[in-house]
Amino acid sequence: MSEEDDIILSELDDEELVQQMMDDLYDGLKEEIEEGVNILLERGWTPYDVLTKALVAGMTIVGHDFRDGILFVPEVLLAANAMKGGMAILKPLLAETGAPRMGKMVIGTVKGDIHDIGKNLVSMMMEGAGFEVVDLGINNAVEAYLEALDSEKPDILGMSALLTTTMPYMKVVIDTLKEKGIRDDYVVLVGGAPLNEEFGRAIGADAYCRDAAVAVETAKDFMSRRHNQMNG
Ligand code: B1M
């Protein structure tokens, strides 16, 4: 590589750096993403801004080209890996807000679905807001949710699905909770790119959460309602 081609990330201004990070995420360059994240943090960016304005925004571009057949699974996996590298740096920073304990959530991606970046982001943001989070990972059958609800006794059950073919499984889980007479023991929050509010209502969830920030606000809202009910 010639000298002109070498981009020194720290010499770019914020806007150029974010643009470069989007390109690097697209190209699956994990080390460059980690370096970019650290530079933005050193420049005083909040972890949340780095996450949303650089990483999530970059992943959206990857998503469009994946949809349009310009990128394929191996490239998208590399991009996801680079994104996770950046998220690993931000995770402790998002979690160290010293927020008071808000409640407990069990969260997992549903059966047949291996997408976990959005779920991980929700977990991170919830932890940052003071929630204890038990993350069940990906590809969870109803039994896995039931077992965790029983052993962890959370306030909230969170489910994530990124595929139109896997999102109906959320209803399987909720219907099973109903059959067992335990549906109302939990606040059920659902999220994932193909969902919407109407779907959330139709399957009997308490709320659909558009993104991680909405998930935190919704969870806080339900917790304070529960708290008021208990005191009222
Ligand atoms: Co997949 N994939 N993928 N993929 N992938 C999508 C989802 C897709 C929309 C791409 C496209 O065509 N445009 C498409 C789904 C189409 C559809 O169903 N309508 C798709 C497909 C088709 C597939 C495969 C079938 C491809 C194939 O094999 N032919 C395959 C399926 C595998 C499986 O699950 N069985 C597949 C595989 C993969 C990879 C493994 C390569 C990789 C996943 C890596 C990983 O997660 N570790 C991957 C990726 C990365 C994507 C895209 C590009 C990005 C997803 C992502 O991480 N977004 C995605 C395109 C897209 O969504 N634009 C795509 C960033 C993340 C921060 O956003 O996940 O939406 P998101 O999460 C948000 C909100 O949705 C919300 O908050 C998050 C943060 O703000 N949220 C919640 C999410 N979960 C929540 C839970 C809550 C609350 C809020 O609970 C309370």
Automatic annotation (TrEMBL):
PROSITE patterns: B12_BINDING (PS51332), B12_BINDING_NTER (PS51337). One of its GO terms (biological process) is homocysteine metabolic process. GO terms for molecular function: cobalamin binding; metal ion binding; methionine synthase activity. The keyword Endoplasmic reticulum does not apply. Residues 8-102 form the B12-binding N-terminal domain. It comes from the Bacteria. Residues 102-232 form the B12-binding domain. Keywords: Cobalt, Metal-binding, Methyltransferase, Transferase. GO terms for cellular component: cytosol. SMART domains: B12-binding_2. Belongs to the methylamine corrinoid protein family. PANTHER family: METHIONINE SYNTHASE (PTHR45833). This is 5-methyltetrahydrofolate--homocysteine methyltransferase. It comes from Donghicola tyrosinivorans. The lineage of its organism: Bacteria, Pseudomonadati, Pseudomonadota, Alphaproteobacteria, Rhodobacterales.
